[in-house]
Each structure stands twice: as C-alpha cells, then as structure tokens.
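Q: Can someone sanity-check these two? First one:
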Amino acid sequence: MAETIVLAYSGGLDTSVATKWLQEEYGYEVVCVTIDLGNLPDVDAARERGFAAGAKAIEVIDAREDFLRFFAFPALAANAVYEGQYPLATALGRPLMAKLLVDHARAVGATSIAHGCTGKGNDQVRFDVAIHALAPDIKVVGTARENLMTREQAIDYAHKFEIPIVETVESPYSTDENLWGRSVECGNLEDPWLEPPADVFEWTRSLDQTPDQPAEVEISFEHGVPVVLDGEAVDPVTLVDRLSLLSGEHGIGRIDMVENRLVGIKSREIYEAPAAITLLEAHRALEAMTLSKHQLRMKDRIGQEYADLIYNGLWFTAHHQDLAAYVQSTQRYVTGDVRMRLWRGTATAMGRRADRSLYSHALATYGEGDEFDQAAAQGFIKLWGLPVQVQAGVQLLAEPGGLERLAAPEGE
C-alpha cells in the first residue's frame, strides 16, 4: 500500500507539478492542503488542477483569523521588523502552515509532508524546522530543491500530464501574499540598480497617483492588540482588510530592500505591507505614552531579536516562549486610541490617548498648572554630574593638554 504524503498546495504551477511528481518519483498518495491566510487565488481552479494532477484529496483551511490573532498581532506587539524594514508577512505565515500540515498529516496517517520551497530561500528552513519541532518522526520532502526543474521544464511537465495551468514562461516574478503583506522577487528585480517596474505593485499606489488630500483613521488597541477602527469594533480580518485598502490607496507600505537571507546570500526583495506599516506606527505611538523609558529601550532590543527569530524559522522554540512572555508583559497597559494620518506614502500619528498613560500634562506643561518641582533640579544635576566632575578633575584635566583632548577626543 502506498504511503500518504501531505503537500502544502497553493494551486500554482510549482505545487501542481509537485502533486504529480511526488506520485511519479516516490509513489506517494498525495493529499493536498491549501491554507488560506488571505488573498487566496481561485480555489475552484486550484482544485481542478490538483485533481487533474492526481491528488487523492484536496483540503482547504481558512486560517486567516488564527494567523492574525496568534502570529501577526503578537509580532506587532513586539514591533518585530526584520532589518529595520520588513514586517515579516511571509515568515509569519510559515509556522502556522507547518502546524496545520502536521495536524492534517496526523489526521490522515501520512508519513511525510512536502512543500515547494526552493533550496535557495528562507521558507524551506522555516517549514523544515517547524515541522520537525512539532513532529520529529515525519519526513519532509522539498519538491523544488529535489526535482530542480526550471520554470520552462515545469511548464513542459504540466503539459505532458495534462495539468491545466495558466503560468507562462514570460511571467517574471515569484510572489507570495497573505493578509499581513505581499512579497515579490525574481525577474529584473534581481538587479538592485533597476527601479522596480510599476507592474510589481498591486496593493499600493505610486505617490503620483495617491489622493491630493490625506485620510485620517482612528485605531484603538487593547493590551497591544488592534480591536477598533474608527469607533467600530471589528474582527481582525476585517480590520486588516480595511486598513490595507485605505493605506495602500495612499501609497503606504512599499518596501524595496536588499536583505540578508538565512541561507547566507543577499537578496533584493519588494514588499507591500500597507496595514502592517500603519499598525506598527500606531502601536509605537501608543507605547510611547504607556511604557517607561527603560521598557521602551529593552523592547527595541527584544523586537530585533523577535524579528530575527521569526525570520530564521524558530517560532516553535523555548527562546520564542521566553521572548513572547516578556512582550506580553509589556502590553498590560498598552490600551488606548491613536489617530493616524495617511498621506503620500507615510502613516503618521497625529494624536494619541490612553487611560493609563505615563504622560502627565501637569508635569510637562510650562504654563499654568505646572507641578514640576524646578527647585529640585539643581540638586539632581549636582548628583548626576558628580562622577563626571570627579573623573575630569582627577584624570582627564590632570595632564598637559587634557582640556584640549577632553574637548576634542582623538579621532574626531
């Protein structure tokens, strides 16, 4: 009896070909699992291709809300952005997909799980590591890195087995998208000197096509999680969908970067993440009101570590549990409202308020009602500057030319 393999199936050229190739090469019975994290292509057409390729079954799982609640929003709470630019949309989707693939493999008695990630990308690492963390006994097959078909060869293979496809050799880009963002690579984007062509972008307008007037939107958070949009409580999928459309209309969320892949190469990537960028700016603005200076400094460091962890496929680790516990602790009082202005590619916080805000008007104001004890400043400054004064007198000014060196240290 043939072994069963569960294939992460998008319905595109590569995974349609993989469905047939796994049968022809290894003799597997193939169960296709399509996981909807947002912007799923034509499901009916994907089913047709899968069954034409000989799939035993095709399962479609709507995981959009789980993706936002348990993956994207925790990353938002951490302000996790890879290398200062990428909000990690694709990287955040992989651990959830791995978990659902493992769950389905257990349900149908599969011995293996397959994905179509290439041997040069990050996603193969994310899938393999996550699957083996959750199910060490399950074999992982990377179809693209094992069959090594070029795009032209994959198209010929599909034609040979009469798999209905829509891709052509002329289609230059490799794309991936979910509710949190869209990524584009390959084609002429591989030359970092070239400006991205207009047809690369689908979710965001170019600046010369954005509205003449800005838009304002109010976002309300509870414990670091966005829950209300313009006074209306909405579910996560609706909130992100609406914000993505509005922010994209104003050109927000375009990212063109050369990033350091986990596998050791640099890659030019184009991302569109309109909702993610707007929510990150709003969340940072609210944290500035509700976290102390030391919490904010530590969160900056934790956020970078959190982003690296997600990017590197280490979601299902004790290290992640430890970081997540700290992040959740910091969000206890991150509850309030932020008014965002969306215009000309920029999301800007124009107002913020919170019931547990650390901002005190009575302490900050220079006008009537000032409660700051300015008389205490002199003593504070004396004690704060005391070690500076002592070291300067004993060491830095005690040698010839000390004053000059103190004023202009060597190397400046």
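And here is the second, same format, sequence then tokens:
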Amino acid sequence: MAKNVGRLETDSLFLGLTRPTMVFGITYQWLMIEGLGSLVWFINVDDGKFYAFLIAGVLHVIGILLFAKEPMIIEIIQVWAKASTKCINRRYHSNTSSYDVY
C-alpha cells in the first residue's frame, strides 16, 4: 500500500474513452490526409500510378509513428496554429491584427 502513495493511477476505461477513433493505428483525420494525398498523386502523375500506393504506405508509417506516442497530435497542432498565427501585416497597424473583428 505504501508503494503507490503519490502515484497517479489511470483507468483503462478512461483512456479508451478519451482516445480518438483509430483505423489501422492512425486517426480518421490522418487517414483522410493520407487518402487525399495519394489520390492527388494518382490523378496528376501519368506514369506513377503504382507510386500512389507507395506514398500511401509511407504516409501511413509516418502516421503510426506520430500517433504511437500521442494520439491527439493533430488536434494539438490545430490549437497551436490557432493560438500562434497572427496577421502578417500587423506591423503596419500598430502591432494589431488587421483582420480581426476587434
């Protein structure tokens, strides 16, 4: 009993309910990015039709490596991008974002 004092315990049901839905080890968002990327390659390249499957495989491996450690990495990047991006011409408007409503 004294060994677990001060340690944080997680319930496997809680972890399962808070994890995003995953397909083959990647989230649906990454699956759509992977599918659209390989589809665009398949449509635009004349001689590289087989390489579309190779690109999809490489993107899938990248996704598995990204989501193995943190399954919500895309959501984290989206929140970071919203918080850190500013208007590029803010220096002309007294360091305020000229496209903001306020």
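A (reply): Looked at the second one. The mean pLDDT is 80. The chain has two domains: 2-71, 72-102.
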